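note to self: dont lose this again. the chain is below, predicted strucutre after it. 234 aa total, dont forget to put it in the shared folder this time
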Amino acid sequence: MNILINADDFGLTRGITDGIIRAHQSGIVQATTMMMNGRAVPYAVQQAKRFPELKVGVHLVLSYGRPLTTTTTTLTDASGQFRFTNQYAEQVPPSQEDVLTEWTAQIEAFLATGLPLHHIDSHHHIHGWDPLQEVVLELARCYGVPVRFAPTLAAHPDYLLTDTLYTGFYGEGIYLDLWQELRSLDTDSVEIMVHPAYVDADLRGVSSYTTQREEELALLTRLSLPDDMTFMNR
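---
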């Protein structure tokens, strides 16, 4: 089984960024995914350039903070913030054109840093929302990079980063036997989504998932890959 351990929310805060770097430098994290409207993006870019073996993707955002563009009226509320929450499936979908414009801006902002783009995924898995499927596939085609697995994209395996996504390393799930959990999957390749961090004031201000990120970090710097699994080279 091929394994990709990918850390979300790079650049959201400095503490998250430092935690991801530590989990890569001293642990088993191979990749991360940057939020281009995060609070610590310039710092995250600087750190990524210090550790070029860390693969970096774009964590496309519609459910945190402000957009990078100013014409995406179907994406925002009256305050100019993104109007979507992690319960977006219950909300009115946005204009596909507006999403394409905003997500293109986020990807272009990433490319302007000079970092190589490894993959595309999204905050709260919103790229897997069925109304946005064609936008996601268009971006993957345009930029020539794979996309994080989502059930709505399963019919397009040529575009996917891995055959499946393991989201169980989260909350109470971090205390499970990760490798045994993965062995129960019938798949050739799997991405493990993780959230290591050092808790800082900014993190407490933007997320309810805080102290367990430090517990994730501690585990990710202690675990080692078993002999029957290999890290993905992609």
